[in-house]
C-alpha cells in the first residue's frame, strides 16, 4: 500500500458566513473534513494544511495578519502538522508542498478543502500531473455561486461540474462516509 497524506486546502475563516468570501455549504464541508482529519490522525497518516495569504495588505481577501487567513478552529493544525503558505490557487506553486510530500515518501493524497472550482481544482490537477494518486472527498469541499456571460451558476452546479471534471482524468472521488468505511 502506498504512503498517503491528507492535504487540507484553505479551510480558513474567510470562507465562513462571517468572512469576506462565504461559501455555500462550508459548514458541512468543514465538518466532513474534520472527520477525515481525525481519522488520519488516528491512523498515523500525515495531515498537511495549506493556507492562502494574499501577497498584498491591500488585497480584498486573505489579507496577511487578518482573521480571515486563520485556519478554521474545527480543523486547526495540531503540533507537528505542517502548514504550507501559498499565494496562488495551485498549492504547489512556489511552495514547499512537494518537498514535504517527497520527504515523507508520500505517493497518494486525500484532498479536502476550498474552493472546489479554484484551489481544489488547481491543486488536484497539479498533484496528478506530478504523479500522485489523488482522492478528493467531494463532500468535504465547498464553493460558491459564479457568474459568466450574465448567467448565474449555482454553487451546487459549479461543484458538480468541477468534481465531474476531476473524476474524468485527475482523481478518484469519494464521499466522507464511503471513505471512512473503507
Automatic annotation (TrEMBL):
The record places domain Isochorismatase-like at 5-147
Keywords for the protein's UniProt record, in alphabetical order: Hydrolase
Database matches in CDD domains: nicotinamidase_related
Enzyme Commission number(s): 3.-.-.-
Query: Does this entry carry the keyword Hydrolase?
Result: yes
Question: What enzyme class is recorded for this protein?
Answer: hydrolase
Q: Name one GO molecular function term.
A: hydrolase activity
Domain of life, source organism: Bacteria
Read off the Gene3D superfamilies from this record.
Answer: Isochorismatase-like
Looking up InterPro entries in the UniProt record yields:
Isochorismatase-like_dom, Isochorismatase-like_hydrls, Isochorismatase-like_sf
Protein name from the UniProt record: Cysteine hydrolase family protein
Amino acid at each position: 500500500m502506498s504512503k498517503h497524506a491528507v492535504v487540507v486546502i484553505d479551510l480558513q475563516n474567510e470562507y465562513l458566513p462571517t468572512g469576506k468570501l462565504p461559501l455555500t455549504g462550508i459548514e458541512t464541508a468543514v465538518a466532513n473534513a474534520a472527520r477525515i482529519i481525525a481519522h488520519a490522525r488516528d491512523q498515523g497518516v500525515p495531515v498537511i494544511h495549506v493556507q492562502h495569504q494574499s501577497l498584498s495588505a491591500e488585497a480584498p481577501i486573505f489579507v496577511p495578519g487578518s482573521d480571515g487567513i486563520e485556519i478554521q478552529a474545527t480543523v486547526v493544525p495540531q503540533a507537528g502538522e505542517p502548514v504550507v503558505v501559498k499565494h496562488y490557487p495551485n498549492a504547489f506553486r512556489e511552495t514547499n508542498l512537494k518537498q514535504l510530500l517527497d520527504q515523507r515518501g508520500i505517493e497518494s493524497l486525500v484532498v479536502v478543502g476550498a474552493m472546489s472550482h479554484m484551489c481544489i481544482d488547481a491543486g488536484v490537477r497539479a498533484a496528478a500531473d506530478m504523479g500522485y494518486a489523488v482522492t478528493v472527498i467531494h463532500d468535504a469541499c465547498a464553493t460558491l455561486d459564479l457568474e459568466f456571460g450574465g448567467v448565474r451558476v449555482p454553487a451546487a452546479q459549479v461543484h458538480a461540474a468541477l468534481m465531474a471534471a476531476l473524476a474524468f482524468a485527475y482523481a478518484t472521488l469519494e464521499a466522507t462516509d464511503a471513505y471512512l468505511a473503507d
